[in-house]
Design brief:
With 311 residues, the chain is of the alpha/beta class. It contains 10 helices and 10 strands.
Length: 311
């Protein structure tokens, strides 16, 4: 996806944490716990990888998107995350213990950037505004790769799928089943940018595996509303374009479940659980909802770069 968006940049492969996810939301936390040794080894490996890369590259700045091992004292480093108030699923004590462990890594970076607004009117609630903060942090405002586009039609529903398997496919099947019975034109973006087989259009549903930022901006702007996960990037995109949405958190994923409840309490979006999905009711509720979207500064991050002294 990044290669398509920015064809001129140099891409250096780095293995991910290779986390696998369960079919059932109730098994999410136990399965993650079983993978903790693998995650810790991955953090160690990526730190060693960075040390080796710095022997051959003179980078002015490293921005780590939730990669805990990409710290070094050989150049400036930034850790970027909205997940500081960790929700472990094991109560407050579990949250504090996990946050303490993660802060040990975060505090090895020069600073921590939080893509949210400072103060009480914010997007991520206690996720980005926990009781205890890292030693050096800065709120840089929300981020979005999308652009404000003119509303051309306002005549279709837009589905944006994302996230790990198997839950992406489970939701895809549920949505197709219910959308097939609706009297609506639907653009269904499957969230598969890496060459997956194209799904044939069905009735009034048009399928796209992936859309680049410009086309996606136009598609969201001209949609009646959006149906998607309550992932933080998706939420920031929706808020930038001020678009009504039905959000469906990934079962068992504590961050998405909390974020959905937080946004529901603010009356910014309509929320439904995947296990009780009812698109008729959800779409009607989203289209009839009276919303006062917050005024957010999507350019605030530029000040963070200026403070680092990086041109």
């Amino acid at each position: 996806m990044l290669t398509k968006e920015f064809p001129a940049i140099n891409i250096i492969p780095l293995k991910g944490y290779r986390i696998s996810y369960p079919n059932k939301g109730a098994l999410f936390i136990p399965k993650i716990l079983l993978q903790v040794p693998k995650i810790l080894q991955s953090i160690k490996n990526e730190h060693q990888w960075l040390d080796h890369q710095l022997d051959n590259n003179q980078w002015d700045l490293i921005i780590s998107d939730n990669r805990y091992g990409l710290y070094t004292n050989r150049t400036k480093t930034v850790f970027i995350t909205h997940q500081l108030g960790i929700i472990s699923g094991f109560g407050r004590l579990g949250d504090v213990l996990l946050r303490t462990m993660l802060y040990r890594w975060i505090n090895l970076f020069n600073t921590c950037w939080i893509p949210d607004a400072e103060g009480h009117l914010n997007i991520a609630g206690k996720l980005s505004h926990p009781m205890s903060m890292p030693k050096d942090y800065r709120f840089i405002g929300p981020l979005s790769r999308l652009n404000n586009a003119p509303v051309l039609a306002d005549d279709h529903l837009l589905v944006l799928l994302s996230g790990p398997e198997p839950q992406r496919t489970i939701l895809e099947k549920k949505l197709i089943d219910q959308l097939s019975n609706l009297d609506e034109d639907v653009v269904f973006v499957r969230g598969l940018p890496s060459g997956a087989a194209t799904m044939h259009n069905s009735g009034r549903i048009r399928f796209e595996n992936h859309l680049d930022a410009n086309i996606l901006s136009e598609m969201i702007s001209s949609a009646k509303m959006v149906i998607c996960r309550s992932g933080y990037s998706s939420v920031m995109d929706l808020l930038k374009l001020k678009k009504r949405a039905l959000l469906i958190p990934t079962p068992g994923q504590t961050e998405q479940v909390y974020l959905a409840k937080h946004l529901d309490a603010l009356h910014w979006f309509v929320i439904q659980e995947q296990s009780h999905l009812d698109l008729d009711k959800g779409i009607a509720a989203a289209l009839s909802q009276t919303i006062e979207f917050p005024v957010l500064d999507f350019e605030a991050f530029k000040k963070a770069f200026a403070n680092l002294g990086i041109q």
